[in-house]
């Protein structure tokens, strides 16, 4: 518990004990009423009782009174502090006028309000704890080896290509590739996955993980500012600035609602007595109507809504981050709950994106030579297909052998290797260049090779489905997502096989990045305006589609920086099941928001009517304000619990 919360709790306890003590003393030594209706003075006179009761009142309420006064001077009159100050001071003034020495109601209102504030502070702290857990992934230093000694430096000082040493118990400070050693990494803060991940030489690792067992040497791929841990912290820090429609509605509602109820309370205090006095010529009953107006004010305080709605979304964002899903704002969290279209990129999203050369057909030169030419032509590309070709070649690439390299988007590569013009790409490239190629009927990505305008054969490269892709699609269908669509740049044969295995009925193949954007735009035009279209991708070529979709979901581990930057939601461990979790979390969060809105407004309006009619007293008002707020806040923090989801 934080120091501020402890201080608030101590104030609540001291004030409550003093109030109980005064109530008991008042019963014992206070004024007594006889059977005849006469008042027998007590041992303590009225002014002393007033001073004694004001001690617990100011202990529990001094900060509210100060905030109310400051709000008036700053032009923010109609807030909950003003309402509490007016209601409690008014109740105390009424007790003074009646000269009954009983100031319990005014103090109790302030006391229970502070209890509600304490619960709200506790709930926010619990939500923030989940966010803060992510902040703990920030590395304090990086180890650089100099003259046989490890030197600690700031991660900001480490350049791309540097060799850093990560010892057991230390955080991985920068993204990179393991070049020496084996170990297990704790990735739970990033992915929500409790099982450690084993890494060895050649494995890519991301910053923010904790090294558990062995010493590893890592060659850095990025600067600290561009590494995963920095990106995550930036997303988390900015997430609260993107407000949902529900939060915006509550803010506008409170601005109109609070002045309206203050004016209504004033009219309730003035009009009935004036009507009684001037028109009905009867007793004005000022005390009765002022008491009703004060009760009306206490009931009307909109704290339950103003506090619980943002808290529900904040808790939802914290719960999602704990489950390995980073959502960039509560507006995206809300939109996710309306998802009815999920459009997937294939490679790296539904498949592992780890390609292997499986076969070579119709080659007119030796297989080794065909692979060598393809690898050299693809030497400048980081696309998974290019990586698989370079891996299959298995030797260092001599870039000096390659000149005039041109990438033709959606087609392939044109380059000059050892003085020969090499074409490496799909059938569209062959058609474009007028090459008489041999089509392949095997499933997989086909890379056709041509040398100086003559066809030299093709290489068959295939990808694997992710382990959880089939289950993710099944669960999305079961959760009511009516439209599941796959877009890919691969051939129709590959697309059909993957779609059939996954159970996706609609797919579109052989698409360029611009074609994917066009497909998504057409889907957005034809869908219901209330429905949300989510696009899931990972590659740099997916960034335009991620930005165009209602909700862009990026795979954070394998995904490119551009894709993560353009996305609204980041799946930290690339597991497609997290998409289902994210949607379920958003639906649960929004359900809690609606529960709080209906509950709070229902109780408020019912009690306001009863208060205006004089049926309720200040104690019912306390429940209508503080009780409703506590219940709404406790309901809101349920959004943190994502275990069952």
CATH superfamily of the domain at 325-352 and 466-572: HAD superfamily/HAD-like
Second-tier CATH architecture of the domain at 325-352 and 466-572 = 3-Layer(aba) Sandwich
Mean of all residue-level pLDDT scores = 82
Q: Helical element count?
A: 20
End-to-end separation:
28 Å
Uncertain regions spanning at least 5 consecutive residues: none
The gross shape turns out to be elongated
Strand-pairing-aware structural class: alpha+beta
Q: Note the main sheet.
A: 7 strands, mixed
Work out the strand percent.
15-25%
Radius of gyration: 34 Å
CATH class of the domain at 325-352 and 466-572: Alpha Beta
Percentage of residues assigned to helices: 40-55%
Strand line-up in the sheet with most strands: 12-24-23-22-13-20-21
The quaternary organization reads as: single chain
Number of DSSP E strands: 24
């Amino acid at each position: 518990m934080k120091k501020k919360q402890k201080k608030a709790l101590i104030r609540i306890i001291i004030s409550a004990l003093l109030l109980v003590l005064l109530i008991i003393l008042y019963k014992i030594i206070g004024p007594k009423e006889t059977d005849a209706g006469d008042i027998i003075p007590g041992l303590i006179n009225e002014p002393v009782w007033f001073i004694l009761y004001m001690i617990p009142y100011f202990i529990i309420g001094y900060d509210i009174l100060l905030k109310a006064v400051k709000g008036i001077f700053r032009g923010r009159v109609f807030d909950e502090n003003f309402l509490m100050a007016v209601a409690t001071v008014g109740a105390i003034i009424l007790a003074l006028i009646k000269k009954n020495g009983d100031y319990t109601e005014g103090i109790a209102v302030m006391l229970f309000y502070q209890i509600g504030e304490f619960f709200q502070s506790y709930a926010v702290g619990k939500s923030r704890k989940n966010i803060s857990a992510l902040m703990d992934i920030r590395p304090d230093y990086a180890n650089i080896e100099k003259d046989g000694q490890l030197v600690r430096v700031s991660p900001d000082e480490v350049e791309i290509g540097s060799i850093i040493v990560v010892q057991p118990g230390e955080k991985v400070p920068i993204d990179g590739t393991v070049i020496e050693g084996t170990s297990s990494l704790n990735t739970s803060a990033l992915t929500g996955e409790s099982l450690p991940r084993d890494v060895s030489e050649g494995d890519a690792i991301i910053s923010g993980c904790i090294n558990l067992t062995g010493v590893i040497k890592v060659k850095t791929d990025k600067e600290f500012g561009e590494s995963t841990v920095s990106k995550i912290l930036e997303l988390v820090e900015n997430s609260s600035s993107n407000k949902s429609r529900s939060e915006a509605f509550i803010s506008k509602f409170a601005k109109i609602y609070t002045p309206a109820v203050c004016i209504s309370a004033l009219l309730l205090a003035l009009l009935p007595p004036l009507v009684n006095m001037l028109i009905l010529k009867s007793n004005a009953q000022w005390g009765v109507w002022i008491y009703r107006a004060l009760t009306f004010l206490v009931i009307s305080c909109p704290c339950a809504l103003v506090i619980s709605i943002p808290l529900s979304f904040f808790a939802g964002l914290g719960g999602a981050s704990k489950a390995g899903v980073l959502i960039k704002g509560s507006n995206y969290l809300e939109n996710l709950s309306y998802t009815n279209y999920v459009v997937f990129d294939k490679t790296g999203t539904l498949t592992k994106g780890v390609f292997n050369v499986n076969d070579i057909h119709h080659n007119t030169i030796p297989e080794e030579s065909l692979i060598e030419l393809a690898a050299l032509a693809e030497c400048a590309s980081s696309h998974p297909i290019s990586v698989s070709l370079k891996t299959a070649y298995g030797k260092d690439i001599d870039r000096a052998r390659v000149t005039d390299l041109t990438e033709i988007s959606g087609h392939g590569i044109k380059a000059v290797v050892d003085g020969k013009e090499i074409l490496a790409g799909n059938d569209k490239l062959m058609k474009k260049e007028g090459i008489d190629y041999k089509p392949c009927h095997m499933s997989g990505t086909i890379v056709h090779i041509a040398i100086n305008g003559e066809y030299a054969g093709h290489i068959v490269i295939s990808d694997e489905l992710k382990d959880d892709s089939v289950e993710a699609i099944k669960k999305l269908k079961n959760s009511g997502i009516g439209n599941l669509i796959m877009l890919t740049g691969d051939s129709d044969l590959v697309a059909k096989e993957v779609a059939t295995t996954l159970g996706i009925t609609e797919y579109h193949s052989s698409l360029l990045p611009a074609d994917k954007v066009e497909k998504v735009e057409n889907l957005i035009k034809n869908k219901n305006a209330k429905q949300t279209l989510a696009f899931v991708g990972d590659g740099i070529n997916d960034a335009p589609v991620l930005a165009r979709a209602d909700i862009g979901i990026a795979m954070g581990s394998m995904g490119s920086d551009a894709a993560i930057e353009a996305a609204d939601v980041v799946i930290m461990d690339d597991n497609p099941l997290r998409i289902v979790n994210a949607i379920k979390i958003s639906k649960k969060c929004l359900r809690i928001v609606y529960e709080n809105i209906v509950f709070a407004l229902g109780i408020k309006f019912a009690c306001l009517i009863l208060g205006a009619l004089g049926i309720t007293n200040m104690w019912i008002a306390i429940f209508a304000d503080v009780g409703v707020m506590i219940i709404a806040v406790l309901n809101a923090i349920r959004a943190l619990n994502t275990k069952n989801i």
